[in-house]
Fold:
Amino acid sequence: MAAPGENLRINSDRLWDSIMEMAKIGPGVAGGNNRQTVTDEDGEGRHLFRQWCEEAGLTMGVDQMGTMFMRREGADPDALPVYVGSHLDTQPTGGKYDGVLGVLAGLEIIRTLNDLDIKTKHPIVVTNWTNEEGTRYAPAMLASGVFADMHTQDWAYGLEDANGKKFGDELERIGWKGEETVGDRKMHAFFELHIEQGPILEIEEKDIGVVTHGQGLSWMQITVTGKDAHTGSTPMPMRKNAGLGMARILELVDKIAWSHAPDAVAAAGHIDVHPNSRNVIPGKVVFTVDMRSPNLATIEDMEKQLAEGAKKICDDMGLEIEFEKVGGFDPVTFDEGCVAAVRNAAERLGYSHKNLISGAGHDACWINRVAPTAMVMCPCVDGLSHNEAEDISQEWARAGTDVLFHAVVETAEIVE
Amino acid sequence: MAAPGENLRINSDRLWDSIMEMAKIGPGVAGGNNRQTVTDEDGEGRHLFRQWCEEAGLTMGVDQMGTMFMRREGADPDALPVYVGSHLDTQPTGGKYDGVLGVLAGLEIIRTLNDLDIKTKHPIVVTNWTNEEGTRYAPAMLASGVFADMHTQDWAYGLEDANGKKFGDELERIGWKGEETVGDRKMHAFFELHIEQGPILEIEEKDIGVVTHGQGLSWMQITVTGKDAHTGSTPMPMRKNAGLGMARILELVDKIAWSHAPDAVAAAGHIDVHPNSRNVIPGKVVFTVDMRSPNLATIEDMEKQLAEGAKKICDDMGLEIEFEKVGGFDPVTFDEGCVAAVRNAAERLGYSHKNLISGAGHDACWINRVAPTAMVMCPCVDGLSHNEAEDISQEWARAGTDVLFHAVVETAEIVE
Structure:
């Protein structure tokens, strides 16, 4: 492969302007965005992206999950395309960069190639995956999950939002249910640029995260049942305080994570206390423990420690406990060649970089199952994401997109 | 004082029938009652009670807080009345016995005195205190609190329910705003029978609780603030997990209560986690710690330990903490003479009994500030209350009412 020269750079002003233009569609209430999947705003964003792509000479394909594939031809008619992209949908109170940066960076690559009249052997396809966020229709990464055969399309179509509207109906309503069979496309490689959604790059002052793995995840919903009782008239020895049981399990969860340092993490983000009244000892607490590690054996070990330890805590307190696994995916190891292309690009361009494990799920995590895949990450302020205050600097966006550009173009092979 | 003979007993079938008749007004959805204060149902219950009282020869006074005072004359025109009663209002999903038993037991005393043609030196006044429950209009024990000069009447009138309706307006609407100035009545004594709302009597197989004290209470609302962050992409050392801080404080609360054994109790019944999403480390937790003891110095010591200990926990974790005292009342020591009258009655009648500290608040706790007061408790199944499944046996009601009868009549002095 012919690597591009280090003087080849994207136009960061143009990229930034496009991000800001896209952010005008489905504005949030606090400076971010509310452009949830298969809403009118999602449709409007798709039209703008399509217009930009067509202005850049790309031709569109849309699959039956609504995923958009914007193609720049390659010199070799038989070469599989290099795919690059992410998602344009946002959380209900989302930021301007999560997902959007990755899609518009793909477009900026095309624009730069056009500027410089560079041809590649492999076609390049800029991709906007449908419903990455999973807020309106859980689970997240829905269309890429169907693409990678993790879910069936019929099941996805039947998912309902909070108002009982079906995903398939809404996709049709906004006019983006395409004809292509999902997953039929074969890829030479897939690259995704994304903001880190964590604090490491900013704190360590690195421009680029070279994502080597995606963490596996286990979501265990725990129900601890004791006995509702009056906080005043129930002596301490007669209490079955489900809230205190929950507290001791949270301490255990923290210990389990630290005992699998440095890459394992765990916490409970969701906790519902019943009846949640100031003068009633909680009779029931339902909470979800989120445990992650890039190593499958570690996740399994953590799950076992949680099950045994939490059971013992509850037995000792006369509480009942039930476990339900409500979510999970296996750790991801990204493609060695694609990861090297990202790392080499950062080196060549003089950007500081470090290996990262993606803590969040991304479309790339599913696509990695069906194509050689890698991810580039850039810092975000304070690690903040899924929040209207999400922020990045134009310099960070430039560095990430430059690296993405070099990785994609090296993989797509410049034709001299 | 002339004590009544041990053969003087109330008519437990008549008492039980009246309880069941009252329970038909404002029925709940699961066998209990929803007869909240100053609703149409409350008005209907008051009319039935008034009718029964007038059939028993009592005359009615109603004060400006709507509290009903149903009077049986005494032989001595200068003697202050002995008051007996509780409240007819219920929780939205309340039981048939909480409060109601105490009011109708007062009526049963009158009916039995009438049956036996017994006269007392002191008048006896059966009382139905308005808004003991405090669910529709917080705080609890509202009318007795105004009676005991703990709140002003104007403030009570201005309280709003969840629909913005004012207490004073609703009291007038149902036709029970009386003329009497609240708190003008002087009392020789006040007795209240109530279900225990705790498990001790049933577990220890005692018929009667002789209530010597009311626990003092401290409600401390604690806000722990950390930092919302993604559960996957935030390394353990960079977390500020407000949920874990809350868990450690709950453990501390438990330790503080046990270290003040045997009478102190503490727990957190109300816990709200923000943003309460499975994949977001909690950035904020707001919860209320309920601590009680019959000893004021103990409560103050517990509050100090909580403030210092919770602050240290949060300091060590890089969390912010704020405290707000959102409720409290001082411990109550009931009148020695009235308590003795209750204990002597139980002894005389051959009922097993033990001293109890009331963990819950009751109208008697406020009235004790302005008159010699005591309480009788009877067991309830499983300690359950503020719940439609609340239950007692007719035998428990009989024993409690017999003891109340003897204590009231001994204090009111039988005229031979």
About this structure: Chain B has a mean pLDDT of 96. The longest helix of chain B spans residues 296-317.
